[in-house]
Amino acid sequence: MAAIHKLTVLGIKKSAPGKYSDGGGLWLHKRSDGGAQWFLRVTVHGRRREMGLGPLSQVSLKDARAKAAANRAIVQRGLDPIKEREREKRDATRDIHLLRDIVEDAFESRKADLRGDGKAGRWMSPLQLHVLPKLGKIPVADIDQRDIRDTLAPIWHTKADTARKAMNRLGICLKHAAALGLIVDLQAVEKAKALLGKTRHRPKNVPALSWQEVPTFYQELSDGTITQLALRLLILTAVRSGPLRFLTIDQIEKDVWTIPGEAMKGRRYATADFRVPLSEEALAVIEEATKFERDKYLFPSVRRGVISDATMSRFMERNGMTARPHGFRSSFRTWCAEATDVSRDVAETCLGHVVGSSVERAYRRTDLLEKRRILMKAWSAHCVGKSTPEQLNAAT
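^ that's the sequence the OP posted. Answer follows.
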């Protein structure tokens, strides 16, 4: 066996710059600038490896020999001491990379892609409600498919849409952790889906009034309250409740309401605003709502902010209706299909839906405003009970 412990403390102090062997693969490298570094040479799986053991100023000869012996023992077990040291470092620090911290960091990185910078909390809510209570305090490196399966199993069939969102966003967070350099199982989500199987839940459409029933309901909204005015404008414009509830007077110019792009669902990067043509009836509703204006909002709540979607839903529920506010978009779309010959592109654009492929949209740079203006005028006439064949013909 090659000699070991060849160096002495005094000899090290007196030695000139150069590399000195202590035996057993332990070396000291003294530099010309006065610094010195311990390193260990070992052979692992037929390949020579060198690993630093620290500077002489911090690691004594005795400590260097102890470190060398410990790492030689690792080699004798057939392991790479450098990789083992890296693993130990990860294990020692992984507790600071809890899933809840990764989720928060992933959310912050993606806020710009979310509507309203994600302030409504919809991106986070499936994780906050169904994932973080069980997995939030677990190091992200320890999470596997069984953890995910056990966490989402209770809602996998009963709340399938929520479970799907939670699963997909958890996958995004795991990819974010990997991008940070953490060791995670990027296939854990797909494995969990395989363990859970297909969902049995079938999504239900939002209950809606038939388009034939809309005029009767619309004409009953005659009390002039904030809730009823909001419902009237919701029906007349066929927009989603979010943009309507946050409508401000400065968004109206003549007979066009311009909804900011970031308020439109599905417009991921909010690159374009959405123009809504307003019928005479819609303008009359807006004029009546201005008397309630507070902080520029036309539909303020009793306390602060704006009315909620639940406010309109509860009004319809109190009137014994199963239909909900969002359902009026379906009422309008069905009316377009059954009572008019309007093109699909015009009808879908009225709903703010993206129409055509990306190539088609690149060449067709129009929002069909004038055609939509005629169609919305005919819809308004239908709602107030004054629809005529001439208006329907004009709309098509």
